[in-house]
Structures are given as structure tokens and as C-alpha cells.
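Postdoc handover notes: sequence design on the structure in folder B. Input C-alpha cells:
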């Protein structure tokens, strides 16, 4: 029994991670993403030639980014029908590849058996109790741009029929549900650069409250189209003038930071209820223990200068993890039983599960901050954004914020926008498992003294929790907390 019926529906359950997948500018696979980040190797290069819609880069004011090269849709196994493969955008194909990898890892099908490779992963769960969430900032935007050019050049009959079927941001969710036979909810989620983190949070809630036994969460973004680059460059949001040294462009928290650097990519995480994973003998890679989200209600692009919305998301994430109530959702800071006595002294009261801030839980979040071991920061390299993020962390975590090692992996990976939250969640999970904190590269002249930024090279560390933050245009904020899986959870 894995949550069916009223009894399972109202019994809160823990969500564990059992599969990871990625296709990024670092190369195919979640391993390639981790290896680039932990080595401090930038994947940002100069852009030349044309974008995926055929528009030239040469005249653009910014011509750098993390570009996926050499991806072969024909390598997907099982192969897509040729007609479908032609109709899908590159970003959707990357999403399928990332999802395939995550599912195969979750189902232990990462083998060289050709028969295994040519089969779609067989779901071990009731298909009606599996969900798909596809997170993206823009979706298959290149398809719309190509169709617009076709309309202008050749008239209405040149506009492809497939645009109506596969041209929406949520189309990938439907494609994935059909590929794997998933019969639960399949939906898109769009919250600009916080899309991935919020999608993970929604997946957590589905599992925790018994609405699903497994949730496939996939983020994808193709943001290196000429139109996207031109628009963001005109907004002066991008790091400009680095065509001669692209690897130096992304500089989170550095005094010389000049904007973010966009990267293409897709990332996928398979969430599963702890009881379902244990019942089939799956390995839990980590626990997704907490989630918080908020809106700034402040400005179309600029963060709240004091980081109020971002701080609220972090506080709610810690409360949601149950840190102050005896690790009720499975946050284990190096402990086996997760008991309240081990977590807090007898005279300290923690927040009720799901507590909202403004009801006295703010002080509890400051206490819970003691159990945050590492932060994978949003850290995009914008002047306003980086400053606001540190103010938010101070507001949420108090003086402890400056003691927590912080990494901004976008310095190496670039900014995957709607997919960033999931890509960085993969890095957070690998950080926990490898006990190695990736560095923030290009942080040569920190503007903000007194913070423990991990720089230059990876830092070994004994950690049990990682907080990952995501903030976006429009004031979207999301935060997720991952914890190490205990021996019991990995059995």
C-alpha cells in the first residue's frame, strides 16, 4: 500500500530522490554537469553561426552562453517515431533525454544491455499515481519564432500544424506522459527562473500528502535564441563584453559582476515516496525535506532591495522541513532517529508544520538555520540580485548566514533559467553524496566581506543538509532543502 485511499491520502510521507538526469552545455548526463561544477570549469563559450531557428549571432550585442553541442536525438532509446522527432523542438528533446536518464537510474536500468536500452522504462508504480511536471521559463520558444518567420516569408500555409500541438510550455509534460505511460497529472509550470525549484516543491507536496507515489520533475530551457539574447541584452541584464574571455563572464558576488550568462539545458529528478522506494528496494539519493515559495509583489524585473520575498521563501522552506518540530519530515542532521531532543533543547519550541511567517515562526527559522550546512545560492551575477539575495539570507538565517559555506554554481554552468532550479538541485544532491562543495569561480574581488564563499577549488565538508535557492523576474521565489538519506532510507 503506497498511499492509496483516504488513509494514505492524509498520512504525510517523505519524498526521496531516486533518479537524476541532465543534458547541459557540460555534456550529456548528470555526471557531466557535476564534474564541470565541482572542477570549477566554465561551460560558457562564444556564440557563432546561427541559433536553432537560423538567426545569426554576429550582430548581437552579447554573443556568449552555455550552448549544447553535439546532441543527437537519434541516440534516444527507445527511439522517437521519426515524425515526432522532427516536430519537437530541441529543448523538448533535451528534456526527454534528461527524463530517460533519471527514470533509468531510479529503476536501475543504467546498463549496456541493448534490449534494455530499446525499451521504455517499465513503471513499478500504479501509472495513475505517477505525475509529470515540466518546468520552463519560455518553453519551446524557438518553434514560435520559426513559425513567425515562415509566416512572414511564405504565408499562412507554411506555418506548421505541430505548433498548435507541441508549441506550448506544457507540451513536454504530455509527451513524457505518453512516452512512459504515466496516467497521473501531467502539467507545465512556469515561474521564470524559479520554475524548477517550485516544480520540485509541487512534486514534494503531491507525494507528502498522498496524491502520488512518484513524480517526474523536468526542467528545460533553450534561451540562446537571437531574440532572447537581444531582449535580455537590451534590458542590460546580461554580462556584456566578454566575447574574448567567455569563461570569465559569470561572476556572482564579485565586485566586477555585470549580469548573468544564459545557458541551454534540461535537468530531471525523479521523486518517490519513501515507502514506495523502500518497498521496491530502490536507493534513496537524498531526501527532499522542505520547500518554500513567495512573490515579491515589487517589480517586473528587480528583486525587492531587502530581499523580503526571498527571505520568506527560505523561512517557509525551513519550517516546511520541520526543523523546529523534531525533523518531522525527515530532516536528519547527522542523526539516526530524528528525535526532537536531539534537534533542539527542551526549552526551544519549533514551528508547527506548514507554519506561515508572521505567526511567530520567524524566530524559529533563525534557530533552524543552525541545521543548514551549505547553500547553493541563486547567485546570477547581477548587481541588484546578488546584493538582495545576501540580505534575504541574513533576514532568514540571521548571523548564522555568514557562517554557512555558499556556492554559486552559475559561475560555471551559466543560468539555465527555468531549468536552473532542477540543475542546481542535482548539484545539491551530489554535494551531499560526495561531501564536496563546488567552488564559485571568477570571485576574485568579493564585494561582500564576512561571507564564507567557496572559491577557487572544491572544499571537502561533512554536511547533512543543502539549501538551494531560486529567484526570478516577476518576483518569483523558491527554496528547497535537501538532506542526506539515512541508511534506512537507502536500503
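Designed sequence:
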Amino acid at each position: 500500500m503506497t498511499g492509496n485511499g483516504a488513509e494514505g491520502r492524509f498520512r504525510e510521507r517523505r519524498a526521496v530522490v531516486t533518479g537524476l538526469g541532465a543534458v547541459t552545455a557540460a555534456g550529456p548526463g548528470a555526471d557531466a554537469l557535476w564534474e564541470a561544477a565541482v572542477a570549477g570549469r566554465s561551460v560558457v563559450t562564444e556564440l557563432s553561426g546561427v541559433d536553432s531557428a537560423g538567426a545569426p549571432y554576429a550582430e548581437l550585442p552579447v554573443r556568449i552562453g552555455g550552448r549544447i553541442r553535439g546532441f543527437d536525438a537519434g541516440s534516444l532509446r527507445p527511439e522517437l517515431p521519426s515524425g515526432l522527432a522532427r516536430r519537437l523542438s530541441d529543448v523538448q528533446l533535451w528534456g526527454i533525454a534528461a527524463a530517460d536518464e533519471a527514470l533509468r537510474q531510479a529503476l536501475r536500468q543504467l546498463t549496456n544491455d541493448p534490449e534494455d536500452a530499446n525499451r521504455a522504462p517499465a513503471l513499478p508504480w500504479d501509472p495513475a499515481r505517477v505525475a509529470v511536471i515540466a518546468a520552463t521559463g519560455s518553453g519551446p520558444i524557438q518553434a514560435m519564432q520559426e513559425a513567425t518567420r515562415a509566416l512572414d516569408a511564405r504565408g499562412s500555409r507554411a506555418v506548421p500544424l505541430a505548433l498548435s500541438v507541441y508549441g506550448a510550455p506544457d507540451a513536454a509534460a504530455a509527451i513524457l506522459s505518453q512516452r512512459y505511460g504515466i496516467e497521473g497529472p501531467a502539467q507545465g509550470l512556469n515561474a521564470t527562473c524559479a520554475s524548477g525549484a517550485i516544480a520540485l516543491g509541487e512534486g514534494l507536496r503531491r507525494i507528502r500528502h498522498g496524491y502520488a507515489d512518484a513524480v517526474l520533475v523536468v526542467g528545460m530551457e533553450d534561451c540562446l535564441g537571437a531574440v532572447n539574447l537581444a531582449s535580455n541584452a537590451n534590458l542590460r541584464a546580461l554580462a556584456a563584453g566578454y566575447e574574448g574571455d567567455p569563461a570569465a563572464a559569470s561572476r556572482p558576488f564579485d565586485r566586477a559582476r555585470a549580469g548573468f550568462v544564459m545557458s541551454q539545458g534540461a535537468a530531471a529528478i525523479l521523486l518517490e515516496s519513501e515507502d514506495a522506494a523502500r518497498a521496491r528496494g530502490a536507493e534513496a539519493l537524498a531526501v527532499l525535506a522542505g520547500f518554500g515559495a513567495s512573490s515579491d509583489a515589487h517589480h517586473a524585473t528587480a528583486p525587492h532591495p531587502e530581499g523580503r520575498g526571498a527571505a520568506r521563501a527560505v523561512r517557509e522552506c525551513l519550517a516546511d522541513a520541520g526543523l523546529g518540530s523534531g525533523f518531522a519530515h525527515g530532516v536528519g542532521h547527522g542523526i539516526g532517529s530524528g528525535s526532537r531532543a536531539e534537534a533542539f533543547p527542551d526549552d526551544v519550541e519549533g514551528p508547527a508544520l506548514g507554519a506561515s511567517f508572521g505567526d511567530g515562526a520567524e524566530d524559529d527559522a533563525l534557530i533552524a538555520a543552525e541545521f543548514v550546512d551549505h547553500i547553493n545560492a541563486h547567485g546570477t551575477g547581477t548587481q541588484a540580485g546578488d546584493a538582495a539575495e545576501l540580505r534575504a539570507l541574513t533576514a532568514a538565517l540571521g548571523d548564522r548566514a555568514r557562517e554557512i559555506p555558499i556556492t554559486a554554481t552559475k559561475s560555471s554552468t551559466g543560468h539555465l533559467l527555468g531549468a536552473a532550479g532542477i540543475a542546481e538541485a542535482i548539484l545539491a544532491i551530489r554535494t551531499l553524496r560526495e561531501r564536496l562543495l563546488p567552488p564559485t569561480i571568477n570571485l576574485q574581488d568579493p564585494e561582500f566581506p564576512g561571507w564564507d564563499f567557496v572559491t577557487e577549488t572544491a572544499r571537502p565538508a561533512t554536511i547533512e543538509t543543502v539549501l538551494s535557492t531560486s529567484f526570478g523576474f516577476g518576483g518569483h521565489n523558491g527554496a528547497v532543502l535537501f538532506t542526506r538519506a539515512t541508511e534506512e532510507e537507502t536500503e
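Context for whoever picks this up: Residues 1-10, 324-360 have pLDDT under 50 and may be disordered. Don't rerun without checking with the PI first.
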